[in-house]
Design brief:
The chain has a single domain, classed as AOC barrel-like (Beta Barrel). The relative contact order is 0.16. The chain is mainly beta. It is 12% helix and 46% strand. It is flat. The longest helix is centred in the first third of the chain and has 22 residues.
Length: 191
Amino acid sequence: MAKTKTISKFLCIFTILLYLTTAAPAKHDKLGRHLSPSKLGLKTEKLSHLQFYFHDIVSGRNQTAVKVAEAAMTRTSPTFFGAMVIMDDPLTACPDVKSKLVGRAQGIYAFASQHEIGLLMVLNFAFMEGKYNGSTLSVLGRNTVFSAVREMPILGGSGLFRFARGYAEARTHVLRTGDAVVKYDVYVFHY
């Protein structure tokens, strides 16, 4: 019995030592490293203000937003709770949809509130004009449609908006039979 306990202890210690020697590699690989911002071409951080109009068209033949899913209860919900819409909305310089196109709002919004018309917005502002051409800003936030001003965070971006952070203020300019023109003021820090 004593011999069995001794062998058992020896095997336990041997197993632990074997594990420790094989689990600890000779060279530690690093997941990340510190970089100087200048090595990425980053200079002084700027604060930019962008202003444009978002055209969400859900009626007629030239829809820019289409419902792609809905829960059974959506049909009886006064807030459209459970519906999801995918969009590719024009962004223009002025409230008229025929004014200068500066980009597109591409993404998804879902009716996520049972008590008011409140949207979960997941979208990219993809710019197609001037110095921001090819750059994007990413938005993820709550949009309570009937509030005078809605604020949503800017979580990042690409192109001239790499490392972007900030917020977007949305104000409904026109709302007609589900179609909306929304004025956006975007305040964003970027390099």
